[in-house]
Amino acid sequence: MARTQEAERAGIKRRATIVNVALDLFAAHGYDATSLASVARAAGISQPGLLHHFHSKEVLLVAVLDERDQRALTAVDIDRAYDTTPVERALEVADAMVAWNAQHRELVRLGHLGAAHNPPLANAWARERTARFRAQLAGVIANDIAAGIVRPSADPGQVSSWVLAGIAGLESQWLIDEDFDMVASMCAFTQMLRRDLLVVS
Predict the structure, then answer these.
(1) Phi and psi of 91, rounded to 5°?
(2) Most buried of 47, 59, 85, 109, CB within 10 angstroms?
(3) How many Cα neighbours within 13 Å face the side chain of 80?
């Protein structure tokens, strides 16, 4: 039993090493230009050893995209307590996410890979992620409408789609033009949403 648990811990640690190495390589050189052999070498294991944990490059990419998201969510302190309304906190997180992304250009480019690239698993990851984030934000808005915080005329689904579109669209412009200030643009956008959505008491 102890050996089994030790092997499981070692496996989890090895998987984490592979994912972190792959994230760095994918971000630095691009997904297409990075081979599994190069990831294995950088992780200090054989390619068959890597394939034991991730049976294809696509499966590894999905794990890397999850890790990219986790780093971003950790950086913006997603779970911390707040003293504003839930919808205001959600918009604050959106602003913070864009600000963090502005410091991690290659990770942003990597994050857009799932939506724009060919790997079916990565595309499925992007669809699931978008649907999940949209549903979570729509739920926050719907709850704040019920609580009298957000105007009843607001459509939770539309508003959540606008926020996601704002983040993705501003990132796309910034990836094309590094001088574009997506952080200021996002803050202006969310401030406009606050004025439009919140009930003034």
Answers:
(1) -70, -35
(2) 85
(3) 12
CATH number of 69-197: 1.10.357.10
Does 69-197 match 1-55 at the fold level?
no
Q: What is the pLDDT of residue 4?
A: 77
86 closest CA partner among 74, 78, 76: 78
* Cβ(127)–Cβ(164) below 8 Å: no
Q: How is residue 33 written in tokens? A: 């230009």
- List the chain domain ranges: 1-55, 69-197
Q: Which residues pair with 198 in a beta bridge?
A: 150
Do 98 and 167 contact (CB within 8 A), yes or no? yes
- 93-118 pLDDT, tens digit per residue, is 999 999 999 999 988 988 887 666 55
- The CATH architecture assigned to 1-55 reads Orthogonal Bundle (1.10)
